[in-house]
């Protein structure tokens, strides 16, 4: 037998933690004899296969000598379509990086995208279509979104072998319960809504476009109704924090648990310097991860469960938009590979013509490039070789391991 190449080992004084990133399994080993046996297997020595060794085998941490460990991309049979449905937004968040205009996708463009999807389905490669609704604020284009989703559902009636999943990134202000129910019935599986803690902080950073007034109360009212809807989709509450608001986020987590009964998934990220005009604090990556670890420990102490719940799921750190099967369409039907690096010319990999045919350019080769050694990395099942690939292209680097391993082990130690 041999140890899995996808094991991550965390040694401490009292125990050895083994995380298998392919199977998503974690064990804590305190038995000295078992730790010695694992070291012997790592050295290539034969050991007697006892109950503990067989248990590690079932968890994928120890594998047969002749087993070739393969880690498939979870999106290999998924067609990903991300739509910048509009470049306009009803908010003017102080740290936002987008440049707002009144451009939006029209019905003719939606028809072109539907033609593209139909042609992609004709080769029977895909088992799932994942649509991401993005903006600007997608709910400003609610009627056109509903038209597109109804047409897409109609198209898929002839393909019972293909499932549909829809996600949306929204500020939540216009997501009233009736609109939400309609979208759930058309395939909406998950929604990401940003709530920057309590109203005092949120209303300073996330304000309406016209009168600069606060938005917190309206969003929380919508979330309350969604939480009480028995068929609600997965809801991800994202909070953007800085050093001044971090401690208050802990109080907000307790408030969230009480008000929403820990129904939603909490996600925390430090404010990034994507907007050059933003004058507030932007943390270093190291300080951000230390802050996230602190929040996770707080959640564990207070039995708040839905935070970093899926860290060991396949592709947790991978950018979906970087997938070979991913197509991001802006309001001019340009095709992109990133929803953040909009001022970077290599983000644009082609265009969708009026017949719904993707015409690529040379930039696509940069995004589709695969690094051979990635598949032997113990973190590969989590990043799939495409963790923020745009930044890797800009920096002309092939590997994200050194940037990821310390953050990952710190979070695992906080969770387990």
Keywords:
416 residues; alpha/beta; three-stranded antiparallel β-sheet; 13 helices; 15 strands; globular
Strand share of the residues?
15-25%
Low-confidence stretches: none
Report helical residue fraction.
25-40%
Number of helices: 13
Shape: globular
Query: Can you count the beta strands?
Result: 15
- What is the overall pLDDT average? 93
Strand/helix succession: EEEEHHEEHEHEHEHHEHEHEEEEHHHH
Largest sheet: 10 strands, mixed
Query: Strands across the major sheet, in which order?
Result: 11-10-9-8-7-6-12-13-14-15
Query: What structural class do helix, strand and pairing data support?
Result: alpha/beta
Radius of gyration: 23 Å
Straight-line distance between termini: 27 Å
Task: Provide a brief overview of the structure.
The protein has 416 residues and is of the alpha/beta class. It contains 13 helices and 15 strands. Helices cover 34% and strands 19% of the residues.
Protein described:
It is a single chain. With 416 residues, the chain is α/β, with parallel strands linked by helices. Helices cover 34% and strands 19% of the residues. The protein has 13 helices and 15 strands. The protein has a 10-stranded mixed beta sheet with strand order 11-10-9-8-7-6-12-13-14-15. Strands 2-3-4 form a 3-stranded antiparallel beta sheet. Strands 1-5 form a two-stranded antiparallel ribbon. Helix 3 links the parallel strand 6 and strand 7. Helix 9 packs parallel to helix 13. The longest helix has 17 residues. The radius of gyration is 23 Å and the shape is globular. The two termini are 27 Å apart. The relative contact order is 0.12. The mean pLDDT is 93.
């Amino acid at each position: 037998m041999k140890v899995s190449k996808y094991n991550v080992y965390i040694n401490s004084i009292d125990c050895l933690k083994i995380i298998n990133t392919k199977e998503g399994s974690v064990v804590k080993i305190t038995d000295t004899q078992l730790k010695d046996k694992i070291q012997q297997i790592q050295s290539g020595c034969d050991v007697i296969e006892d109950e503990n060794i067989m248990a590690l085998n079932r968890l994928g941490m120890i594998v047969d000598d002749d087993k070739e460990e393969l880690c498939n991309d979870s999106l290999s049979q998924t067609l990903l379509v991300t739509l910048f449905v509009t470049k306009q937004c009803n908010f003017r968040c102080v740290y936002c990086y987008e440049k707002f205009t009144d451009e939006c996708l029209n019905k003719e463009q939606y028809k072109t995208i539907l033609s593209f999807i139909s042609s992609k389905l004709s080769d029977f490669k895909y088992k799932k279509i994942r649509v991401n609704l993005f903006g600007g604020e997608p709910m400003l284009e609610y009627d056109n979104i509903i038209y597109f989703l109804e047409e897409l559902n109609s198209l898929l009636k002839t393909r019972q072998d293909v499932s549909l999943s829809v996600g949306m990134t929204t500020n939540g202000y216009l997501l009233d319960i009736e609109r939400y129910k309609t979208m759930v019935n058309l395939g909406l599986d998950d929604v990401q809504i940003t709530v920057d803690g309590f109203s005092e902080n949120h209303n300073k950073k996330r304000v309406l476009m016209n009168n600069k007034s606060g938005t917190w109360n309206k969003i929380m009212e919508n979330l309350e109704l969604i939480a009480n809807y028995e068929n609600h989709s997965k809801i991800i509450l994202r909070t953007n924090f800085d050093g001044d608001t971090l401690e208050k986020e802990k109080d907000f987590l307790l408030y969230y648990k009480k008000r929403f009964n820990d129904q939603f998934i909490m996600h925390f990220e430090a404010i990034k310097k994507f907007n050059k005009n933003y004058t507030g604090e932007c943390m270093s990556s190291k300080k951000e991860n230390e802050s996230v670890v602190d929040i996770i420990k707080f959640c564990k102490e207070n039995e708040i469960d839905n935070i970093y719940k899926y860290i060991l799921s396949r592709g947790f750190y991978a950018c979906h938009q970087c997938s070979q099967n991913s197509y991001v369409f802006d309001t001019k039907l340009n095709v992109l590979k990133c929803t953040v690096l909009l001022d970077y010319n290599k983000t644009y990999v082609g265009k969708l013509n009026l017949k719904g045919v993707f015409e690529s350019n040379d930039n696509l080769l940069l995004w589709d490039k695969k690094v051979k050694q990635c598949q032997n990395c113990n973190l590969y099942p989590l990043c799939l070789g495409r963790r923020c690939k745009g930044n890797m292209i800009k920096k002309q680097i092939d590997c994200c391991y050194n940037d990821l391993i310390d953050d990952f082990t710190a979070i695992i130690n906080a969770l387990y």
